[in-house]
Write a structure and sequence with these properties.
Number of domains: 3
Radius of gyration: 21 Å
Shape: globular
Strand content: 25-35%
Number of helices: 8
Order of helices and strands: EHHEEEHEEHEEHEEEEEEHHEEH
CATH class of the largest domain: Alpha Beta
Helix content: 10-25%
């Protein structure tokens, strides 16, 4: 692939750019491809130029979800990169190790084809708007000898747990196909505020992703997701299965339910929005949660405090991309979640 050069700090790229997709970009989504190769350009701007048709694939308009193929020719409009973002891109080009210390992550599984890590909460999976270096950038810096490292899927920044990274293009395509075809089993642990009804086991509600308006509708803000009706043309089918693991006493004034949540579709914020739509949001969720309860939890002393969202990617099942063997990966609860859970449910065996 012919990569775009990094523009001077604070300056715009004056001319249209042309990129040709090589083997390394095969089967990538258009938005992900551009985020990686337009270093320092905000996500919101990338999505804006895609929606407006300024980005062309083989001379035609394309959506963010378009999968690229080898030999595809992309036309990109002029873009502007901030001084800070240009510095970051230069740091990455120079090896970045002398600018930012590379982090290591707990490895749950690794072989020649892929690895599974236990991502901590508060760490984005990749760099982007407001985030300098995510998990994938850190791994590439920590493993400069690795010829190929790519994210197989994503986790929200505030969600901890299992994250897969491919070490070969063949493994990436195989694993991503399993995610698309619902061949993986992804189960999360979520602590919600309130008592979850034992008979509420299936949440089949379409979801719609949108951007919040800022400055009185003059700009675009953070992305959000909402439940929409079954006949909404913008609704994406979304299926979530819920199993109650443990609940606090029935008469507790501040009740909680620990849930095992399995998703059959991988929509943005799916678990968070589905659970909140039932009136039982995830404890600590700063986008869809109970903000007053969250503030009180964050101010509580010692193990009674919860300063993050209680959502953890706990178990993942997939077929090995080379052998076909069915694998079950487990990530134990993060220490801060385990301590809080023991405080409210001391007799519960930790998952």
């Amino acid at each position: 692939m012919t990569a775009p050069s990094t523009p001077a700090p604070g300056a715009a790229v004056a001319a249209v750019q042309w990129l040709t997709v090589d083997e390394g970009g095969v089967d990538q989504r258009l938005d992900n491809f551009l985020m990686r190769h337009l270093k320092g350009v905000p996500k919101t701007h990338i999505y804006r130029i895609i929606r407006s048709g300024e980005v062309r694939v083989n001379k035609g308009r394309a959506s963010a979800e378009t999968r690229l193929q080898e030999g595809d020719v992309l036309r990109l409009p002029p873009v502007r990169v901030s001084e800070r973002a240009a510095d970051k891109a230069q740091a990455m080009a120079d090896g970045a190790a002398k600018y930012v210390p590379a982090k290591s992550f707990d490895v749950l599984f690794e072989d020649a084809h892929f690895l599974a890590i236990d991502k901590p909460a508060g760490v984005a999976v990749h760099g982007g708007s407001g985030v300098s270096f995510g998990v994938i950038e850190q791994l590439r810096m920590a493993r400069p000898q690795a010829p190929f490292l790519e994210l197989v899927h994503r986790l929200d920044r505030e969600t901890s747990g299992i994250l897969l990274i491919a070490k070969k293009r063949s493994a990436l395509k195989h694993l991503q196909a399993q995610f698309r075809d619902r061949g993986t089993g992804k189960t999360y642990l979520a602590l919600v505020l309130g008592h979850w009804p034992a008979n509420k086991k299936v949440l089949d509600k379409p979801l719609h992703k949108f951007l919040l308006d800022v400055d009185g509708g003059k700009g675009e803000g953070e992305r959000r997701v909402k439940v929409v009706s079954k006949d909404d043309p913008d609704g994406m089918p979304s299926l979530t299965l819920v199993k109650v693991n443990a609940v606090t006493a029935k008469d507790a004034a501040q009740a909680y339910s620990l849930l095992e949540v399995t998703i059959k579709t991988g929509r943005t914020h799916q678990i968070r929005v589905h659970l909140a739509s039932e009136g039982l949001p995830i404890a600590g969720d700063d986008k869809y949660g109970d903000f007053d309860r969250n503030k009180a939890l964050a101010r509580a002393p010692g193990d009674q405090a919860l300063k993050r969202m209680f959502l953890h990617a706990w178990r993942l099942q997939c077929d090995h991309p080379a052998t076909g063997e069915r694998l079950t990966l487990l990530a134990p609860l993060a220490p801060e979640l385990a301590a809080f859970l023991y405080h409210i449910l001391p007799t519960t065996a930790l998952p």
